[in-house]
Design brief:
The structure is a homodimer. By secondary structure, the first copy, chain A, is of the alpha/beta class. Helix content of chain A is 32%, strand content 24%. Chain A has helices at 2-5, 25-38, 52-56, 65-74, 93-100, 157-173, 191-203, 216-225, 237-250, 288-300, 304-319, 339-348, 397-404, 452-464, and strands at residues 14-19, 43-48, 76-79, 105-111, 125-131, 141-143, 148-156, 178-183, 210-215, 232-235, 258-262, 267-271, 322-323, 335-336, 381-391, 412-419, 422-425, 437-444, 468-478, 481-482.
């Protein structure tokens, strides 16, 4: 068979979607694409228009349905920064893209380039892996009393598993030694507790990679002070947002970092900085952030050699002192260049390796082994009670309790009232400051059970008694484990 | 009248509660109290026992009711660090104390002591004012589906007003020039939006103090990189937790910072570090953190002159190079001393001023003008719909929608389904990853109204149709303003 005797390696082109965005977007995208082309990236491009023009054209999401179709068909999206107009109900395209396409992982490598880019942290080389879909960023907010507004923090088992596995797979494929987890599970024992628990579980599958955990406040402080102590760090969404910005900033320039947003089917790559409209069109912007995003894209689609060549050429350009204005320093830099000239210098260096920085050398195939999430078997779930949240403008919890104790439903009783989490009944303190938002916990007396109909009955009595129930939270156990928190001070 | 002719200034003693705590607690408290006494602080002391011994004696809260009574009677509490035993359901005494006593403000000054304490940030001198009671730290968590756990973030109008006013009053009394607010109101438009809004409102009352706002991720990055750009920073609880740890860490030592926890009636003062049991009883711990806490206490109770004398003596001791082991550096320090010797050196320096550091000079009366919160008039609240959260193990939102569309209640209709916040019905994307936790929004058709009885009716139909509603969130408007968020992508 000819194919066995003489295997011809056919380079497969990958079709990608490109958006040049707003402000400095077009010029840094042109610079980046010129480098990809010169380095021999096997890509074909579909260009779409997103951002300011689309928003101002009356589309509040900043993207047309046709563009969505192209993004979804190609599955790989290289995106320049866009400008979201102020006011007018325009929605963040970044948030929507991440969520619609299920881009659960945000990966941001942050390395300092000492001594060529000024930094207080010369030995920093970390990768932040941020959960990208859930947590407080689900954006579910409700105001239900005059005084109190609520936002839901949602943490899911699949969300935790997917991001933690991503972090370990990334560490494995990119030769990283340690994965660290940040959470606040000393306070949020269930939500952050789940994240930490899943981290420990999955770490067992990667015995060659070290793992440890820090409480987010101490962890963030250590990243800010001694980033060289860390390698890969994985975090829920909000902490990841904060820590990834800290990490990028302390490298010395936020203009040098790219990020990848990875989902089960689609992926988006970008610079971390914005569209910088004040310097647009002047050929002075630094294209490095988008170049770094494009390098992550190339490793994602398996074009590892091209990625390696570009990264080494880029490192050499930086150490040659060929710098755009944002990082130019008298004495350190050798020449100040524009966007185009910087790209030309990188192209010139393709095939060369840096001498002072360590040249990168990626694994043959950097695509990660990420099986689709498979739903676990359902647990045995039992209803154990209900929290009724009441809008009440009184101040003495005992008075409210007296009203609620009248609620006679099948051995279901008021067991506790809290205000902003702290127990105020029974046995509250007069010093506790109370808002108009009271969480009233009802549970069956010992040994008795409670049903959905009992809860409806409670709501009915409340409605008839003019008790203003604004929300409910059912209390459950799963496989016998109580799955709701006690009151503070309970 | 004799009293008018010859007014005798009677120094009023302030009775305070002291807990020596665990680990290094007793020795740093003894050192601190010896300095207070030598400086002429007008205090009388009631000592209570809290912490490890009390926990292990079977009291899961780590404090007896008698001790609570003393704390509440004296209203001023100077507390050494304690050890919370691992496991066994022991509750954090710090969290409970803050919440029970309504200590809404946590104030942590963080200044570098360059060149005497090694730091990358020689010109840092900031004060973090952290909201201390609400936000995610209300600790209200519920798991209601196999896959998803929820934690409530609560932000209240009085909570925001009290902490923001505290920050501005503090700035005014301590001669600070600027108050900065951190929030994430680009994502959490209602909760963090309220915090930011109240900040802008109250800032107007302090025209002599500059004010500005940063999104928390960028703000935290700037604090980590360039803390000298900030002065006083005010934040909700979680952000404050993270940023105050960053700020303390990058001064060069977390052993030097104290913090105040202030409520409307009570206040607690402490070091920010823990009980460090491994070095306990060896006379090597640095008492500076607790000394700083005690200085905050003295300004709080109006003993400003004593506070000033101690602070200046302490600064002089540091610049004299008289250092405990934790900050001792060959070449910079002149002598390594123990806990007692450090305290003796501070006492020796009372009445003297530092020469290299700027001597402090407090206002005559540093007690802040903080009126009790007065509840606002109730707004006009209208029910506009309800979010039913459904536990459902299917994967196609259209299928769930079909079931829910059958719910015929007085012109109330299913208007949207989201999964982890992102709209999946109508017009969802197949790429969106879905968990088993579906938020199903019901609203009346145009022009119609909805009542509590309608919601109960919906729940009744759900129960009968085996739709597992695990929680509800009512949708309201206040004074005509819609007070709940849209779905992402809606």
């Amino acid at each position: 068979m000819i194919r066995e005797i003489c295997p011809i390696k056919i380079k497969r082109m990958t079709r990608i979607t490109v958006a040049k965005g707003d402000g400095i977007g077009p010029e840094i995208m042109d610079a980046t694409l010129s480098i990809l082309k010169a380095a021999g990236a096997q890509i074909e491009i579909d260009e779409i228009e997103i951002g300011e023009k689309v928003y101002l054209g009356g589309n509040t999401s900043g993207i047309s349905n046709e563009s969505w179709d192209i993004i979804r068909r190609n599955k790989v999206f290289l995106k320049a920064p866009i400008t979201t107009p102020q006011g007018g109900g325009y929605k963040s395209l970044n948030v929507t893209t991440r969520k619609f396409l299920g881009l659960y992982a945000n990966i941001r490598p942050c390395a300092s380039l000492h001594p060529f880019v000024s930094t207080k942290h010369p030995n920093m080389d970390i990768v932040i892996v941020r959960e990208n879909e859930e947590d407080l960023y689900a954006g579910i907010e409700h105001q239900q009393t005059d005084e109190v507004i609520q936002c839901l923090k949602l943490i899911s088992r699949p969300g935790c598993e997917k991001i933690v596995r991503y972090a370990f797979e990334y560490a494995k494929q990119f030769g990283r030694k340690k994965v660290t987890c940040f959470s606040k599970d000393n306070i949020m024992k269930q939500t952050d507790g789940l994240f930490h628990h899943v981290f420990n579980e999955i770490a067992q599958e990667y015995p060659d990679i070290e793992h440890d955990h820090w409480i987010i406040d101490i962890g963030a402080a250590l990243v800010a002070d001694s980033p060289e102590k860390f390698d890969v760090i994985v975090m829920p969404n909000l902490y990841g947002d904060i820590v990834s910005d800290i990490a990028a900033q302390i490298t010395g320039s936020v203009g040098l970092a790219g990020s990848a947003n990875i989902g089960e089917t689609c992926a988006m790559f970008e610079a971390i900085h914005g569209s910088a409209p004040t310097i647009a069109g002047q050929n002075i912007a630094n294209p490095s952030g988008l170049i770094q995003g494009a390098i992550q894209m190339l490793t994602h689609i398996g074009q590892v050699g091209v990625a390696e060549n570009i990264q080494n050429a880029w490192l050499k350009t930086i150490e040659d002192g060929i710098h755009t204005a944002d990082i130019y320093q008298e004495g350190t830099s050798s020449v100040k260049v524009g966007t185009k000239e910087f790209a030309a210098a990188v192209i010139q260096n393709i095939g060369q390796k840096p001498k002072q920085f360590k040249a990168v050398s990626y694994a043959k195939d950097t695509r990660l082994n990420l099986p689709k999430y498979v739903r676990k078997a359902a647990m045995k779930k039992e209803l154990q009670g209900v929290d009724l949240f009441v809008h009440w403008s009184g101040s003495d919890a005992n008075e409210l309790a007296k009203m609620l104790e009248q609620f006679a439903v099948n051995d279901i009783q008021l067991s506790m009232i809290t205000n902003r989490g702290i127990k105020v009944y029974p046995d509250g303190f007069p010093e506790t400051f109370c808002t108009d938002h009271w969480r009233c916990r009802f549970k069956p007396t010992d040994g008795k059970s409670i049903s959905k109909m009992d809860i409806i009955q409670l709501l009915l009595i409340a409605a008839k008694s003019n008790i203003d129930v604004v929300k409910t939270e059912n209390l459950y156990s799963f496989d016998g484990r109580t799955a709701y928190s006690l009151g503070q001070g309970q």
